[in-house]
Please model this.
Amino acid sequence: GTGAELDAVVAAAKYAYTQETILALTLPPNSGLDNKIVIDAIRVQAGKLPVFIPMSLGDLLKMSGEFDKHVYGSLDMGHTSAVADIASSESQEDRSKLFYHEAVSCMARSPPE
Model:
């Protein structure tokens, strides 16, 4: 990650902190930024803004008290970018695939949280 990326994330956090309709900020996945540095920089500008860190299930299960109480793990679903990535063998599962696809499509089009 670069200084410009860090500045952009901190600016987003600062903006989010001033808005009543924004409840939290999710850090960009795969940015190459050190999460500790990012969180420390956010805390200077955005106090107690809740922050979600995208991570794998394994990292989520290992998450301990390394951050303050306003930092949460967020399961990163980046590895499942297509409906075919979710296996199904019956109609109930096919409907789940459709629901998943719609949810992912909507998240990709939504503005930042």
